[in-house]
């Protein structure tokens, strides 16, 4: 009986400790920007969900493709229907790990350079990626910021020849996620 109680107590402590290691947001900001001599195209969403486990550096992002808004409604329609096929592939996702987690002191406020390696899935096509960013620690809040380039052809997104000169070969992606400790 004592052994069973001790096991339950250890499991309870482990659960409480791991619960305090996770940070989440449901309002992550993602923007993409394409610039060509013909046209600039920009879209953004602040509806990305993300979780970060500071104990092991695991990081997950997920966003509904239809949550991106464009300046022009026609661009948004073409994005969803013709390019990323949002009905068939409703989400984009990134799952990875901060590879230099030991460089981050979660107990000291500051900005820390991080390298994140993982798999980015867009349009149903998964690609291995390593991106650099900054993780800002401020008390119980964490802010992750990163920018990286994505080529539509890496994710089998076909651009019709009639608009090929209007869309950049590589599109800049900006990510900002402000996390709160899970359970608060």
Low-confidence stretches: 4-19
Order of helices and strands: HEEEEHEEEEE
- What Rg is obtained from the alpha carbons, in whole angstroms? 20 Å
Number of domains: 1
Mean pLDDT across every amino acid position: 89
SS element count, helices: 2
Residues in helices, as a percent range: 10-25%
How much of the residues is beta strand, in percent?
over 45%
What's the architecture, going by CATH? Beta Barrel
3D shape: elongated
CATH H-level superfamily title: Lipid/polyisoprenoid-binding, YceI-like
What brief labels describe this structure?
184 residues, Lipocalin, 9 strands, 16% helix
Structure notes:
Strands 1-2-3-5-6-7-8-9 form an 8-stranded antiparallel β-barrel. The protein is an alpha+beta fold and about 180 residues long. The radius of gyration is 20 Å and the shape is elongated. It starts with a helix and ends with a strand. The chain has helices spanning about 1-20, 75-85; strands spanning about 20-35, 40-55, 60-65, 70, 90-100, 110-120, 125-140, 140-150, 170-180. Mean pLDDT is about 90; it is low at about 5-20. Helices cover about 15% and strands about 50% of the residues. The chain has 2 helices and 9 strands; from the N terminus they run αββββαβββββ. It has a single domain, classed as Lipocalin (Beta Barrel). It comes from Phaeocystidibacter marisrubri. InterPro entries: Lipid/polyisoprenoid-bd_YceI, TTHA0802/YceI-like_sf. Pfam families: YceI. This is YceI family protein.
